[in-house]
């Protein structure tokens, strides 16, 4: 393929990744900020519990995917990481559906656990916004067989993504007693 065509494709991919990385958090924030909730039914009250399971599975898949690549088992790594990425997309939809249709649950813990909860929650939220760009770039580099760049990007993407999915589970377990359903 011609060099200028490759550069154009690369530039377009970078632009798309940047737009998605900015647009998704903005759209989620806007949807979460809507005060008028949409009645999607009682089933949505189970979504936080499902999201806890999704984050748990994602954390395991990230570790397993890392193991597979360390063993040079590229097909198993690719399949595992594709599952983790897909679960991330399912989580995002589920998270938005829950918050569009249900009020946020306040944390009821007191004492030392309260600041611990909020430190975990805030770091989880901030890094969940940041990690999207890294993950999208890592996936793009893998799909386009730019494995040196993929490896460089995953040095950041993997630990941040693992932290976000794991703290998602911890935050869920800490707030779980305060859900009404």
TrEMBL record:
Q: Mind listing the UniProt keywords for this protein, alphabetically?
A: Membrane, Transmembrane, Transmembrane helix
Q: Is Membrane given among the entry's keywords?
A: yes
Asked if Signal is a keyword of the record, the answer is no
Q: Where are the transmembrane segments?
A: 16-34, 46-69, 81-98, 118-143, 155-175
Q: Name one Pfam family in it.
A: DUF420
Origin superkingdom: Bacteria
Fetch the PANTHER family from UniProt: DUF420 DOMAIN-CONTAINING PROTEIN, HYPOTHETICAL MEMBRANE SPANNING PROTEIN
Q: What is this protein called?
A: DUF420 domain-containing protein
């Amino acid at each position: 393929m011609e060099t200028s065509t490759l550069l154009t494709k690369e530039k377009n991919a970078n632009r798309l990744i940047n737009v998605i990385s900015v647009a998704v958090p903005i759209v989620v924030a806007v949807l979460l900020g809507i005060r008028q909730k949409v009645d999607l039914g009682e089933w949505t009250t189970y979504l936080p519990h499902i999201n806890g399971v999704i984050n748990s599975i994602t954390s395991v898949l990230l570790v397993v995917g890392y193991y597979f690549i360390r063993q040079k088992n590229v097909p198993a790594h690719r399949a595992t990481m594709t599952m983790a990425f897909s679960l991330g997309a399912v989580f995002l939809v589920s998270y938005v559906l829950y918050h569009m249709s249900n009020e946020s649950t306040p944390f009821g813990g007191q004492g030392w656990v309260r600041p611990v909860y909020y430190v975990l929650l805030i770091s989880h939220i901030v890094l969940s916004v940041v990690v999207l760009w890294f993950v999208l770039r890592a996936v793009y580099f893998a799909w386009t067989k730019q494995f040196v760049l993929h490896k460089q990007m995953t040095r950041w993407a993997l630990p941040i993504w693992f932290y976000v999915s794991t703290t998602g589970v911890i935050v869920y377990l800490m707030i779980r007693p305060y859900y009404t359903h």
